[in-house]
Write a structure and sequence with these properties.
The chain is an alpha+beta fold. The chain has a domain of about 110 residues: Roll (Ubiquitin Conjugating Enzyme). A 4-stranded antiparallel sheet has the order 1-2-3-4, with helices on one face. A hairpin with an 8-residue loop joins strand 2 and strand 3. The longest helix has 20 residues. This is RWD domain-containing protein. InterPro entries: RWD_dom, RWDD4, UBQ-conjugating_enzyme/RWD. It holds the Pfam family RWD.
Length: about 170
Amino acid sequence: MTANEDQEMELEALRSIYDGDECFKEISPVSFQFRIGELEDTKAFILDVAWPEMYPEMAPKISLDAFFNNRISAETKHQILSKLEEQVEANMGTAMMYTLFEWAKENQEELMENHKPVVTVANISSSNEMLTTRLAAKKDKKEHLTKAQKRRLISKKGKTVFFLNKNFNN
């Protein structure tokens, strides 16, 4: 079988196995995301996997660059990727996505054992600065009246305002 035939067969199998599974997302026929753990779980992470043209003879590209993973330290990400690379090496030449996803699910605790959630203080302070700036901008903003509000204001003040304005225009 050619690499493309292997990919087509594996893609069909993945679609069948993970049909309706919210953890699996097919980005394209050669690119996938798989969430390990529940959304609320602080030790959950998303694997991004892309197949090179010669997959499964070549290793898939695995990354943890999804925004969801921003709370995971670089050290923990490196540890997860190195352990996944070991699994890739052990399965080289075969369809391995199901094997990798299931292995990661079964070993989530071990993969995340050194995980300490990353809290970005810069993001919190910059959010506060943005909020302060927005509030200040709202205070400085002039009140703009709609045409209907202007008409009501004129009618309340009487025709004098209208005539005064008319006299200045002549």
